[in-house]
């Protein structure tokens, strides 16, 4: 244990961290599943065109891109929260503010969609990932 007062409350025991790691892994996977479910319902089921224009070229948003982007966002969120937890006692509060700001900026991404319906669906995917990650990663374990 470190003598640093901010780190005094952080457990370094791998056994005590296991439930938190497993829970957070499930949260990250759930965020990805939420985005993928929206993609599947909107694209393949409802037939909404999920095409974005990047650097002048049109690209279809496929299942792989949805899973990769949402997993990357979830793992980055988890890593940044874990880092803050090691540095400060205000980690959850600070991280939640940072996550909200990142969400706002991420919502500019769907503006590159080719149609209004695609823009709405992509924005819903961003919001769904945030709706799972933000409360899911910051929930405190009971006990």
Overall 3D form = elongated
Q: Tell me the fraction of residues in β-strands, as a range.
A: 5-15%
Uncertain regions spanning at least 5 consecutive residues: 1-13
Number of domains: 1
Q: Helix fraction? A: 55-70%
Whole-angstrom Rg: 18 Å
Tell me the distance between the termini.
21 Å
Mean pLDDT, nearest integer? 90
Question: Describe the biggest sheet?
Answer: 2 strands, antiparallel
What spatial order of strands do you see in the largest sheet? 1-2
Number of strands: 2
What does this entry look like structurally?
With 143 residues, the chain is mainly alpha-helical. The chain is built from four helices and two strands. A two-stranded antiparallel sheet has the order 1-2. Residues 1-13 have low confidence and may be disordered. Keywords: Membrane, Transmembrane, Transmembrane helix. The chain crosses the membrane at residues 25-42, 62-83, 95-114, 120-139. It holds the Pfam family DUF6069.
């Amino acid at each position: 244990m470190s003598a640093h007062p901010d780190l005094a409350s952080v457990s370094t025991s791998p056994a005590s961290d296991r439930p938190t790691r497993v829970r957070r892994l499930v949260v990250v996977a759930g965020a990805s599943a939420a985005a993928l479910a929206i993609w599947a319902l909107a694209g393949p089921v409802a037939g909404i065109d999920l095409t974005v224009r990047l650097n002048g070229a049109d690209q279809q948003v496929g299942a792989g891109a949805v899973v990769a982007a949402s997993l990357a966002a979830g793992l980055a969120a988890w890593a940044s929260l874990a880092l803050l937890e090691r540095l400060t006692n205000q980690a959850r509060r600070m991280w939640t503010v940072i996550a909200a700001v990142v969400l706002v900026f991420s919502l500019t991404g769907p503006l590159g969609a080719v149609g209004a319906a695609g823009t709405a669906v992509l924005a819903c995917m961003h919001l769904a990932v945030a709706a799972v990650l933000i409360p899911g990663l910051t929930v405190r374990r009971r006990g």
